[in-house]
Amino acid sequence: MPKFVSPPERLLRSAASHASASSTSTGAAYRAAFCAQTNKPLVIKKVYDTKQLGPSELRIRIRACAINFADILMCQGAYQEKPNLPFIPGTEIAGDIIEIGSNVTTFKKGDKVLALVNLHGFAEQCITDVDATWKIPNTVSYATAATLVVSYATAYMAFDRRAELKKGETVLVTAAAGGTGLAAVDLGANVFGANVIGAAGSAEKTALAKVKGAMHAINYREQDIKTEVLSITKRKGVDVVFDAVGGDTFEKCLRCTGFGGRLLTIGYASGSIPKGSYRFKDPKLYKHSIDSVVRLLGEGKIHPHVGASFPLNKINEAFQFIKDRKSTGKIAITMD
Ligand SMILES: NC(=O)c1ccc[n+]([C@@H]2O[C@H](COP(=O)([O-])OP(=O)(O)OC[C@H]3O[C@@H](n4cnc5c(N)ncnc54)[C@H](OP(=O)(O)O)[C@@H]3O)[C@@H](O)[C@H]2O)c1
Fold first, then answer.
1. CA–centroid distance, residue 225 to ligand 1 (Å)
2. Which numbered atom of ligand 1 lies nearest the CA of 274?
3. CATH code at 251?
4. pTM exceeding 0.85
5. Whose CA is nearest to atom 22 of ligand 1?
6. Which domain of life is it from (predicted)?
């Protein structure tokens, strides 16, 4: 029997409690994308932010913010966290520090950083906590930095702590050209030394998975996953499944695991929604995973793929692009 090792929990998102735009009539104005009504296009508006920094906080000039599946669901009112309207979505950002709180010693003005915020990422400015902010090398682009953590730290934690993936083992990754899937392919093949089978929904997507390091690819719109996996593994099945699709695909993957196999249920792109957050349930493991992928990025051992970037005023087009399954890797919103 395969072992189910990862409950459907989101790795990183915290309770979306604080963070609506502060709108007073003084202070420097910046643009932000507001969800004013669920299931309606986001609206770009000016924010007048006069909020004082707390002692451990940083004010960031945002240069890029990643789009995550959960952002789209939240704006549809279909995510487990339902912020009060209006709110500014977006949780994964990169930019430059423009102000530091009175107790901050580990960062300085001008540092290039990535950060996780509860909300307020699709904006030109935000406030972050030092504990949720990481310095990034100057050689890394803002778009790459903004799109790193949720996908790569999720895949890293899943392989390292949940599946205990070993060199030479075989991993099947579904939605292998998606944000999380491609991170799993990259980490699985290039960091953990596994033999990766990338399964995705078009020839272009499977080709991309192979470029990233997948040894074999399956186009599951045209080929049967189980038949192909059994043929590739000479009927042994895979050691680990990394599934971010759920539904029928998950069922099929279940039948592809070999003896002692581990099934990582990462997400449900095809339907229902994962719950929970490692950020609060296991903050040490959460931080360790992010530290690890930031380090691997600096060492040039992983290569995040930003499939496309859209300017802030095209955020609705960017959301639609992902909903239409046209995206590969991660999509970034840039604040130029
Ligand atoms: N556990 C965690 O902490 C964690 C972290 C990040 C993401 N997630 C979850 O993982 C899932 C994927 O996230 P992601 O960022 O990788 O998304 P993504 O980049 O948009 O990739 C999703 C992919 O899923 C595939 N898919 C299959 N059926 C689909 C359907 N009915 N509708 C849309 N897509 C479908 C598509 O690829 P093909 O065309 O190749 O099938 C699509 O490109 C989401 O449920 C997300 O919430 C969980």
1. 17
2. 47
3. 3.40.50.720
4. yes
5. 178
6. Eukaryota
